[in-house]
Design brief:
The chain is globular, with a radius of gyration of 19 Å. Helix 3 runs parallel beside helix 4. The C terminus is likely disordered. It has one domain: NAD(P)-binding Rossmann-like Domain (Rossmann fold). It is α/β, with parallel strands linked by helices and 264 residues long. 51% of the residues lie in helices and 14% in strands. The chain contains nine helices and seven strands. Strands 3-2-1-4-5-6-7 form a seven-stranded parallel β-sheet, with helices on both faces.
Length: 264
């Protein structure tokens, strides 16, 4: 039996960053939040701020995720919103980082989203019309630079969201994909940009991304770039992948050469 009459939202990666920020904003708008992450102490802190409840869960472990979904179902008859936000950085190319790190990035950024959404489909259907927001990245549609594993995991996340948007529509569940650019969070520091007064203008704050999560639901948008300036390059990449890849590769080599020069 449902323990709270408010609209219920499940937010993954809610112990910090975008997840904590959007949970605060949802609570201000009258939502009751189920906060999901691995760090109990940080979750309890956000729960005290928002009046929500916590679920300590590693989204990369499928059995743990389905057990979490069962516990949520025991307390709530339905949910109206899932913010699939859990993720981790993966700086470095496929040739640079350890195989274990590649697996961890893929399991967190892609498979974690898969298990959470699939496990909660019955509750989302019960709460229909309901919404899912997949917090991906502009890296999911523009491949370049040295972040190959991260880019690949985010691309898989985007494609999964697009596939589920079609599958879940008949059930009254709308799937949205947010693709933010560079953002400053605890897990994704942007020191290379924040030190420059010009480049730091492109760095998003946690609150800006949280506002966009709410906006993409309110406007019922299937996909959205943040900021919108990323949309034209993404379209160009789709039309001219070879040309854009060469340009991105050239920029990456120049940046790496400059970095090595500074370290010499």
């Amino acid at each position: 039996m449902q323990i709270n009459a408010k609209r219920v939202a499940v937010v993954t990666g809610a112990s910090s960053g975008f997840g904590a920020a959007v949970a605060r904003k949802l609570a201000q708008q009258g939502w009751y939040c189920v906060l999901v992450a691995r760090r109990r102490d940080r979750l309890e802190e956000v729960a005290r701020e928002t009046g929500g409840e916590i679920e300590v869960c590693d989204v990369t472990e499928r059995d743990d995720v389905y057990a979490m979904a069962e516990r949520i179902a025991a307390r709530h008859d339905a949910i109206q919103l899932l913010v699939n936000n859990a993720g981790m950085p993966g700086r470095g190319g496929f040739l640079d980082i350890e195989p274990e790190r590649i697996e961890q990035v893929v399991r967190t950024n892609y498979l974690g989203n898969v298990w959470v959404l699939l496990s909660l489909v019955p509750l989302l259907e019960a709460g229909a019309p309901s919404h899912v927001v997949s917090v991906a990245s502009v890296a999911g549609v523009i491949a370049g630079g040295a972040g190959g594993p991260y880019t690949a995991s985010k691309h898989a996340q985007v494609v999964f969201s697009r596939s589920m948007a079609s599958e879940l529509a008949p059930k009254g569940i709308r799937v949205h994909t947010l693709k933010p650019g560079f953002a400053e969070t605890e897990g994704f520091p942007q020191d290379r940009f924040l030190g420059n007064p010009i480049s730091r203008r492109i760095v998003l704050s946690e609150d800006q991304v949280a506002d966009a999560i709410l906006r993409i639901v309110r406007r019922n948008r299937r996909e959205m770039f943040l900021p919108k300036i990323y949309a034209p390059p993404a379209m160009l990449y789709g039309l001219m992948p070879n040309t854009v890849s060469r340009l991105l590769g050239w920029q990456t080599r120049k940046r790496d050469e400059a970095f090595r020069g500074e370290q010499a």
